[in-house]
Amino acid sequence: MTKKPAAVTVSTRRKPDLRALKALYADAWWTAGRGDAGIRSVLAHSDLFATAWQGRSLVAFARVSTDFAYRAVLWDVIVSRRLQRRGLGTKLVSAILKEPRLKDVESFWLFTSDKQAFYRRFGFATHPRNVMVWRRTIPAGGPR
Fold it and tell me: In this structure, which of 4, 44, 52, 76 has its CB flanked by the most CB atoms within 10 Å?
């Protein structure tokens, strides 16, 4: 008899530890190179997390930076490759948009290079005239 995989649970209260998040980040092309110092900073300075767990394993993650009144930025929506296309990304984004602590936030912002169609399903729209970016060159050995 084969053992059934543990159910996946979503939480906006459970914060992952460094090891769990680093393992999940290693699973995606755009987060694979992130090091311990940068991940520690993510965990210490983000205002809210949405996580999905299969048993004790972190299988999906998203985070928010916000003032809890006017603006929030959605970052790092990531789902383990082995569980993609099963609705976990949708569950994380929905949990964030419905989170009572964010009920007064007027605008949610995000950055994506390839998932525009996914986010449009929630009502996100592109606003090219509103976004400006200033980039800093980080020397080798910086927090990656």
Answer: 52
